[in-house]
Amino acid sequence: MIRQAVPADHPRIHAIRMGVRENILTDPSLVTEEEVDWYREHAIFLVAEEAGEIVAFTCANHQNGLVWALFVDPEREGRGHGRALLDAALTKLKAAGNAQAWLTTGANTRAERFYRRHGWRDMGHSLDGQIVFIKTLA
Ligand SMILES: CC(C)(COP(=O)(O)OP(=O)(O)OC[C@H]1O[C@@H](n2cnc3c(N)ncnc32)[C@H](O)[C@@H]1OP(=O)(O)O)[C@@H](O)C(=O)NCCC(=O)NCCS
Fold this sequence. Notes:
138 residues; alpha+beta; 3-stranded antiparallel sheet; globular; binds coenzyme A
């Protein structure tokens, strides 16, 4: 089940973000509470539940097409949560008028392979060494 995130979800969302084994948040101060609240209150912030527990989440910016976050509990990978959440976020980005979505991710990760399989186009590396991917929202 996919639904809108609410403030009470934050402890579980935080635990998933800190529990992933790739694209690890090395400096937690880079993600502020204000940013997280903004995504929940003004942009796109969705969670996926399995048996009543949050197992994955995504955040996207309807103003510029950025998929800011997509994280699945490592114990629940490979069950379609990533794909379902990303599809839902892209549908919302398109409905908000975006012709293209974009994101950055670490090289040589499961996420890199995941985005390539799902038709994202590699635009090369950003200054911080991440791969920039774009996708046309047809
Ligand atoms: C990258 C990431 C988001 C993928 O999420 P996921 O939920 O494991 O991905 P999915 O299950 O949707 O798809 C992965 C593969 O699992 C398999 N799969 C999908 N649904 C499945 C199901 N119902 N049952 C069994 N296997 C399934 C498929 O092989 C699928 O590949 P396909 O989409 O080409 O068919 C997740 O691994 C993750 O959070 N990684 C760590 C954090 C990270 O790097 N995030 C990205 C930051 S930019």
